[in-house]
Design brief:
It is a single chain. With 226 residues, the protein is mostly helical. The protein has a single domain, classed as CDP-alcohol phosphotransferase transmembrane (TM) domain (Four Helix Bundle (Hemerythrin (Met), subunit A), Up-down Bundle), CATH 1.20.120.1760. Helices cover 69% and strands 6% of the residues. The protein contains seven helices and four strands. It has a two-stranded parallel sheet. It has a two-stranded antiparallel sheet with strand order 3-4. A hairpin with a 2-residue loop joins strand 3 and strand 4. The radius of gyration is 19 Å and the shape is globular.
Length: 226
């Protein structure tokens, strides 16, 4: 496969936790045993996401499995966030391979997570499917923009992967005591309400990003006069 003219996209991370997280990841990368490589961490992150989905499924009959979800989300953060940092610190970057494997596993991991939620009874299956579809639409736009603009945006509205994990973990702990919530006089599943709010936010973000990037690309490639 030819390597000519490959341009590595610039990473844009604007999440609330980004400055602190970057320092923490560099600290961890410097202290990680040499035998643990980026691929090991990527696999660990994927297993953490799959484990979170399995724990949601088990929580349908054993509610304390929700604690396992939080633990698996922490494992996912450790592996998924640290793999790229380790590769950069050790100067072992493989930008195309790393980008592809990392994000294709994210896709499967997210499907497992939301599949587990759909089976848990804490989220209606149709709502889980809608959340998965909207997530995949947004990530598709992000990956297209990464290719077209050479800019890989990891956060929107100050919310990145780490912030989303924190919100999900807190919400999961709330489920231990309060899986239902009252809204406008009705009684609904807490995670159904949260998921619908998330879908609305994702769709707004998708529209804004699509319009902005279309304008940027149109200006970058103006029509030549006839």
């Amino acid at each position: 496969m030819a390597n000519a003219q490959f341009i590595q996209a610039a990473r844009v991370m604007t999440g609330l936790s980004a400055p602190l997280e970057k320092r923490l990841l560099l600290w961890l990368a410097d202290r990680l045993p040499a035998r643990v490589g980026a691929d090991h961490l990527t696999g660990l992150g994927f297993l953490g996401m799959v484990g979170a989905g399995v724990c949601y499924w088990l929580a349908a009959t054993h509610r304390l499995a929700l604690v396992g979800v939080v633990a698996c989300l922490a494992i996912n953060w450790f592996g998924d966030s640290l793999d790229g940092t380790v590769a950069r610190v050790r100067r072992q970057e493989r930008p195309r391979y790393g980008f592809y494997v990392d994000h294709v596993l994210d896709m499967f991991g997210t499907a497992c997570l939301l599949g587990g939620l759909a089976l848990s009874g804490f989220m209606t299956p149709l709502v889980a499917l809608g959340l998965l579809a909207s997530y995949l639409m947004l990530t598709t736009e992000v990956y297209l923009a990464t290719y077209s603009l050479a800019t890989f945006r990891l956060a929107f509205w100050k919310m990145g992967p780490t912030e989303l994990r924190i919100v999900l973990a807190v919400g999961t702990l709330v489920l231990l005591d309060k899986p239902w919530v009252g809204v406008f006089g009705g009684r609904y599943l807490l995670f159904d309400v949260g998921a619908l709010v998330a879908v609305a936010g994702i769709l707004v973000t998708l529209v804004v990003a699509t319009v902005r990037h279309t304008i940027d690309l149109y200006r970058a490639e103006p029509l030549k006069p006839r």
